[in-house]
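User: Reviewer 2 asked us to show a designed sequence for the structure in our supplementary figure. I'm pasting the structure tokens here. Could you produce the per-position amino acids so we can include them in the response letter?
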């Protein structure tokens, strides 16, 4: 004979339960969820919500993967192969190369001025980091490289950069120049057209990885900070690097 199941202990007096009773989860006969049709409707709603959650989080997951790859590359080779020669135009219309910043540390961030949320967040943390560094901030040149050369003119970048930090330098270039520097820094970006057939041709977004790079005075990769790293953490780590 099977042993009787032990009796469940009653919940203590005053204890709250977070799960609904089974009867609350079952459709009544007059409920729109009753019968096969109702369960199919419920399943469709659940799937729909799941897809919305997936879509909203996918971009941030992709951003996180970039940081993971950089960490793995550093563990494998001892130092990630990031950076290299480039030629771009700064927000004053001047030609700049990697040699323009020789002898200075640089904080490099890729994005675009029409970016709705990720770029403003990243650049705000960069600006706050520089403020927290105090005198050490003078050893660093903050750089914002556009991945949207079609819309981000030097004038547009100059105005945009001024919203974040007075020393932030905006840079752009030809599509080929931007693609080249993005490849050197292992930055992914892709134009995403509007699904609206009547949308303006300039109404598009750009998916891109969001990582802040610290490069040393020789232009060599030193440290990366993934999207979401707060200014206090960045400033602490940078101080350790600048003052070993």
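Assistant: Here is a per-position design you can include in the supplement:
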């Amino acid at each position: 004979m099977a042993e009787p199941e032990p009796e469940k202990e009653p919940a203590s007096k005053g204890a709250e339960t977070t799960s609904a009773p089974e009867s609350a989860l079952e459709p009544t006969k007059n409920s729109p969820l009753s019968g096969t049709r109702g369960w199919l409707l419920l399943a469709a709603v659940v799937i729909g919500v799941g897809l919305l959650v997936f879509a909203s989080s996918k971009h941030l997951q992709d951003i996180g993967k970039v940081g993971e790859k950089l960490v793995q590359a550093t563990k494998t080779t001892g130092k990630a192969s990031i950076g290299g020669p480039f030629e771009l135009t700064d927000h004053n219309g001047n030609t700049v190369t990697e040699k323009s910043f020789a002898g200075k540390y640089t904080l490099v961030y890729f994005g675009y001025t029409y970016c709705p949320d990720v770029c403003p967040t990243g650049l705000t943390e960069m600006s706050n980091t520089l403020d927290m560094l105090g005198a050490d901030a003078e050893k660093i040149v903050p750089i914002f490289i556009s991945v949207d050369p079609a819309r981000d003119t030097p004038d547009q970048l100059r105005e945009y950069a001024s919203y974040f930090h007075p020393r932030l330098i905006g840079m752009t270039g030809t599509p080929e120049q931007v693609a080249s520097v993005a490849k050197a820094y292992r930055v992914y970006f892709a134009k995403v057209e509007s699904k609206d057939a009547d949308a303006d041709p300039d109404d598009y977004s750009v998916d891109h990885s969001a990582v802040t790079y610290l490069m040393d005075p020789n232009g060599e990769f030193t440290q990366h900070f993934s999207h979401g790293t707060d200014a206090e953490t960045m400033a602490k780590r940078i101080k350790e690097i600048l003052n070993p």
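For the response letter, you might also mention the following. The first helix runs from residue 22 to 25. The beta strands are 87-90, 95-97, 105-111, 140-146, 169-172, 189-193, 204-208, 211-215, 221-226.
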